[in-house]
Amino acid sequence: MYKIEATDLMKEIMGNYFRSLGKGEKKIAWCTSVGPAELLRSFGFEVYFPENHGALLGATRTAMDYIPEAIKCGYSGHVCSYTTADIGSFLKNQTPLQKHYNMDGVPTPDLIAYNTNQCREVEDWFTFYADHFKCPIVGIQPPRYLNEVTQDEVDLVVKQFKKMIPACEKASGQKFDLDKFKETVRLSKEATLLWQKVLKTSTAMNAPLSFFDGTIHMGPIVVLRGTQVAIDYYTTLLAELEDKVKNNKGFLPQATCRIFWEGMPIWGKLRMMSDLFNQNQAAVVASTYCSSWVFDQFDENDPFESTARAYTGIFINLSEKAKMKMLSQWFKEYKIDGIVFHDSKTCFNNSNAKFGMPLRLKETTGVPSLVVEGDLCDLRFFSEGQSITKIETFIEQIQDAKVLA
Ligand code: SF4
């Protein structure tokens, strides 16, 4: 049985994080998952990420119980199922946090911050809570779908970051401290560079970390970046994975092909998908999703500009051309034989198969693709039988082509 020993430590860390939110000892800021968490942490806020909660609802397959509650309140069943599952769960006052971490519910916010670098949905989603809690809300609205991030975009976003400061000061009761901000960015940079190294261990032919395991081990880089805890965790995980590479111990030693996963995970089917690829000797070794928390441009000596640049240049916020360039580089780096696009029905923003990218990528890189229809949380949009057939056929075609080559 292949096991990543650091998993137990990761569970402990995530448990401590949630329990500390539940204690209510610190002021709480809610933040989007690729939002300005470092700036918020520099004010001493504990940061809570509703998207992480959405993923939890998906992974525990409770999302389906809650989405109808949000629909009753006027939200379409076709918008972001993180949003509808999260709002529905709130309306029902039920969350896996109660069972798993003994919390009363989601923590009450003192400040809500969002960044539409990923989608406009987060603005609507977070505004629901700002209205409910009568809580101050601040938003960053960067330009979208960029070929590259220029100084103009950076200047604009820096201005918006700075505009957040009075609201942060008021809600936290603390004055802005540039040195604290620099220190938080430094901690975040260290953690994110470790996370990048963790992901890159799977460039080894006998890869130690699958995409599916990556979605679990990315917990701390999402919710604890800017803390020493995240650095310590990824130091431990990296040492273990590097050791596995050195000893040629991969999660699928008999792999016959290497797959790239593009788009959101199908949270409620993570295990089923992992087993399906493994049973067919296909190693899913890399993804855009897990790579979305690599912010290698962070620089504590230039905290505003570097965080503005990094958060504006995330994969989801780039143009199709810029995305294709990144994917082509990843294909080479991870020696990819095929790419699976998850066409997530309630997340248009993170579904890249709609405008011909799979075909264009095949033309420019030679890497074949498959589009799997599904969703991050709403399993009504996922047909298990059909997806299994499509994936098995796709893997077989890749394997046949490799034998003939
Ligand atoms: S990126 Fe997609 S899944 Fe994430 S919050 Fe926006 S719509 Fe929802």
Please render the helix and strand layout as text:
Layout: H1 6-23, E1 28-31, H2 37-42, E2 46-48, H3 50-59, H4 63-72, H5 81-91, H6 96-101, E3 111-115, H7 121-133, E4 137-140, H8 151-172, H9 178-200, H10 211-217, H11 219-223, H12 228-246, E5 257-262, H13 270-279, E6 282-287, H14 288-291, H15 303-312, H16 320-334, E7 338-344, H17 357-365, E8 369-374, H18 384-404
Helix pairs in contact: 1-12, 3-5, 4-5, 8-15, 9-12, 16-17
This protein binds iron/sulfur cluster.
Residues 51, 80, 82-83, 118-119, 121-122, 347, 349-350, 376 line the site of iron/sulfur cluster.
Structural features, described:
With 405 residues, the protein is of the alpha/beta class. It has 2 domains: 171 residues, 3-Layer(aba) Sandwich (Rossmann fold); 224 residues, Rossmann fold (3-Layer(aba) Sandwich), CATH 3.40.50.11900. It has 18 helices and 8 strands. It has a 4-stranded parallel sheet with strand order 2-1-3-4, with helices on both faces. A 4-stranded parallel sheet has the order 6-5-7-8, sandwiched between helices. β5, α13 and β6 form a beta-alpha-beta unit. The longest helix is centred in the middle third of the chain and has 23 residues. The protein is globular, with a radius of gyration of 21 Å. It starts with 5 loop residues before the first helix and ends with a helix. Bound molecules: iron/sulfur cluster. Iron/sulfur cluster (SF4) binds next to α5 and α7. Iron/sulfur cluster binds next to α5 and α7.
